[in-house]
Amino acid sequence: MEVGVATDVGAGQRSNEDAWSAEQLHKNVTLLAVADGFGRPGGVPAANLILETVRDAVRRELRRATFPSRTLSPTDVRQLLVSSFAEANDRLFRIGGGNDDCVTAASTCTAVLIINDQAFIAHVGDSRAYLLRRNELVALTNDESIVPELVRSGGRTLRLGKQRPSRPLLMRALGIEDAVAVAPKVSHYTLHARDAIALLTDGAHRAVPLADLQPALTKGETADASAQRVVALARIGGGADNATVLLARDATVHGSPAEHTRAPKRARPNRVMLLIAFLLFIVTTAGIIAWWLSDTHLYLGTDESGKVALYAGAPANFYGIPLHAMRKTYGVAADSLPSDVQRGLEHGLQVSSQAAADDFLRTQSNTK
């Protein structure tokens, strides 16, 4: 996955209150997110606080799902995103110091959690997520905001001429009310090979027409170059607000492009060495079996009919291969021998030679 990010303070702002996050949380899990906030509770921008909390909550749940291992269903993932947004909302609401009459800090948040080739998009506010597939750009989220002029006009379109419309008013944001009231809208998409995901704060997507946005995200040689181009277009288009663009190409391939370039070299085994190792294993195994089957390792046991027999090797199997061979069968039933001898035969009674085995069996038969 190639991730490029660009951000700009905008012509009408003194500081950049946008934040972004792109992190591989597991070998096949990546979290992409942008946030646009205001207020700095405890000196931390609201957008940074929201993304930090969402990321930590998702990482914590993934760790719980891995140890012990369990599979997260789509419903589990949706609930994970809802609960992580709720945790972020409650944290900002608690430390922001706001009340019913005064909002001191709030933030939008659009997060994409990619698991293998499945993308789960959680969204609150007016930042946007786009899917770029075969040079076609499709919006995956809807803006949760309204234009003040449309409110004052009762919903009618106004003739503004060259007058710049006011900044849209957010209908929902994190950090201003109870988490239940601002639960994220979560959607689920299956990604295809070569798909790209683009996340834009409103300062970027409102200042760049869709007709210009699509080629800008497509034509760049690198993801960084494309993101920088969109931010530049936003500034040229008169964008006064903070503008942030996060572009992730090859979104189904987790990890950086450099890692995947090196991975085949590390993962590809040397066939000659594998063949040599296999042959050594075969030779070693054969040697062990031959050693155990030699006449220097003899024991008395029973055959399938319950008669006493002399074996060379060990009374055991190696991956289904018997480590013993029969040398001689006696016409003596095992159950005709003393009970202690019978128990010994079940586990193999070691003898030094065939003559010693004959003498031992003759003695025990006479004893019985």
Topology:
Layout: E1 2-8, E2 18-26, E3 29-38, H1 46-66, H2 74-96, E4 106-107, E5 109-115, E6 118-124, E7 128-133, E8 136-139, E9 145-146, H3 148-152, E10 169-170, E11 185-190, E12 196-200, H4 202-205, H5 210-219, H6 223-236, E13 243-249, H7 257-267, H8 271-293, E14 298-302, E15 307-318, E16 321-333, H9 339-347, E17 349-351, H10 354-367
Helix pairs in contact: 1-2, 5-6
Give a short synopsis of this structure.
This protein is α+β, with helices and mostly antiparallel strands and 368 residues long. It is built from ten helices and 17 strands.
**CATH architectural type of the largest domain:** 4-Layer Sandwich
CATH topology of the largest domain: Phosphatase 2c, domain 1
N-C termini distance: 80 Å
**What is the H/E string?**
EEEHHEEEEEEHEEEHHHEHHEEEHEH
Task: Tell me the name of the CATH homologous superfamily of the largest domain.
Answer: PPM-type phosphatase domain
Tell me the strand percentage band: 25-35%
Count of structural domains: 2
Radius of gyration, CA atoms, in whole angstroms: 36 Å
What would the average pLDDT be, to the nearest integer? Answer: 83
In this structure, how is the largest beta sheet organized?
Answer: 6 strands, antiparallel
- What is the C-level CATH assignment of the largest domain? Alpha Beta
Low-confidence stretches: 149-165, 261-267
Total number of beta strands: 17
Count of helices? 10
Helix/strand/pairing class, anyone?
A: alpha+beta
Shape: elongated
